[in-house]
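Reading is simple: each integer encodes one residue's backbone shape. An example follows:

___
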Amino acid sequence: MTWSDKALASAASMAQVRHQLRRIARGSRPKPHTRPAYALVAEQRQQRRALRRYRAWLSAS
């Protein structure tokens, strides 16, 4: 798949790398054929959850 938006393609590629690093940190083996679009969407969901937890933590303080 080729991406017409180069910035989005770069973000997806970086998300793919971070996805593999998280797998390695958990003790899993990396999966080299993870789709960049899947990694990008999964990372955005994870960031949204982290932000929600951080906001809850800030309001509780």
Summary: Residues 6 and 12 are 10 Å apart (CA to CA). Helices lie at 6-26, 36-60. The chain is about 75% helix and 0% strand. Residues 36-60 form the longest helix (25 residues).
